[in-house]
Amino acid sequence: MDFRFTEDQLSIQAVARDFAQKRIAPVAAEFDRSGEFPLENIREMGQLGLMGIEVPTEYGGAGMDPISYVLAMIEIAAADAAHSTIMSVNNSLFCNGILKHGTEAQKQKYVRAIASGEAIGAYALTEPQSGSDASAMHTRAVKSADGSHYVINGKKSWITSGPVARYAVLFAITKPGVGAKGVSAFIIDTEKEGFHRGKTEPKLGIRASATCEIEFADYKCPAENLLGAEGEGFKIAMGVLDAGRIGIASQAIGIARAAYEAALAWVRERKAFGQPIGSFQMTQAKIADMKCRLDAATLLTLRAAFAKAEAEKHGGRFGTEASIAKLYASETAMFVAHQALQIHGGMGYSKEMPLERYFRDAKITEIYEGTSEIQRIVIARNETGLR
Question: Given a cut of 80, is residue 1 above it in pLDDT?
Answer without folding.
Answer: no
